[in-house]
Automatic annotation (TrEMBL):
This is 5-formyltetrahydrofolate cyclo-ligase. Transmembrane segments: none annotated. It comes from the Bacteria. InterPro entries: FTHF_cligase, FTHF_cligase-like_sf, NagB/RpiA_transferase-like. One of its GO terms (molecular function) is ATP binding. It catalyses: (6S)-5-formyl-5,6,7,8-tetrahydrofolate + ATP = (6R)-5,10-methenyltetrahydrofolate + ADP + phosphate. One of its GO terms (biological process) is folic acid-containing compound biosynthetic process. Keywords: ATP-binding, Ligase, Magnesium, Metal-binding, Nucleotide-binding. It is an enzyme of class 6 (ligase). Signal peptide: none annotated. ATP binds at residues 2-6, 133-141. Substrate binds at residues 48, 53. Belongs to the 5-formyltetrahydrofolate cyclo-ligase family. It comes from Candidatus Desantisbacteria bacterium CG2_30_40_21.
Length: 196
């Protein structure tokens, strides 16, 4: 069920043309940059988009320009974990790592502990209206988000970003699936769990 939903929504996302994807990604960026929580966060973990995902390059560049501390993941495929690294220059510091995703090369890795992160922009293949998500199937974000909220020292605002075509009413979730507290699409910001 999860698998078939993942496959069918990915196919829909892949059908968006490049131009449409860029336009929608710009709208998502503008909504993100308009959020109060965004203004009050200095340490923001973005993801570096791959394939037909919501594009994040402009978000990262703009955040750096605004003086934010822009953080990006480094994939530790062996342990199925994400490390977090501070990025200073989008043009200079990235190269393809695991799964072909851009990540900081060794000399530009500046590791940052998760408890310093105030906001996490969470990618996903499918989201539902309760904030549940399906990823590519590696469980990477679930493992990282596990310690947020429960571990009282770590409290970051989790923002899922996706296109409208990736939203469904309900996702069949498992115990380890970690929900987000906001979802931004090209049309709206969906908010709940206002406590977070
Ligand atoms: N916190 C976790 N600890 C250990 N294993 C996990 C954790 N989160 C997910 N996993 C494992 O990772 C695999 C993929 O998780 P899944 O939720 O299906 O992927 P995704 O969230 O990428 O769609 C599953 O086998 C799941 O048991
Ligand atoms: Mg999951």
């Amino acid at each position: 069920m999860k698998k078939s939903l993942r496959t069918s929504v990915l196919a829909m996302r892949d059908m968006l043309g490049i131009e449409e994807r860029c336009q929608k990604s710009t709208l998502i960026k503008e909504m993100l940059f308009g959020l109060n929580e965004f203004h009050s966060s200095s340490n923001i973990l973005f993801y570096v988009a791959t394939k037909s995902e919501v594009q994040t390059e402009d978000m990262i560049r703009q955040a750096i320009k605004q003086g934010k501390r822009a953080l990006v993941p480094i994939t530790d495929a062996e342990n199925k974990r994400l490390l977090i690294s501070e990025l200073h220059d989008f043009d200079l510091e990235l190269e393809k790592g695991a799964y072909g995703i851009l990540e900081p090369t060794k000399i530009y890795q500046r590791l940052v502990p998760l408890d310093e992160v105030e906001m996490i922009i969470v990618p996903g293949v499918v989201f539902d209206l309760h904030g549940h998500r399906i990823g590519y199937g590696g469980g990477y974000y679930d493992r990282m988000l596990e310690s947020i909220g429960q571990n009282k020292g770590t409290k970051a605002c989790l923002i899922g970003v996706c296109f409208e075509c990736q939203l469904v009413d309900t996702i069949p979730i498992e115990k380890h699936d970690m929900p987000v507290s906001r979802i931004i699409t090209e049309e709206r910001v969906i908010m709940w769990r206002r406590d977070i």
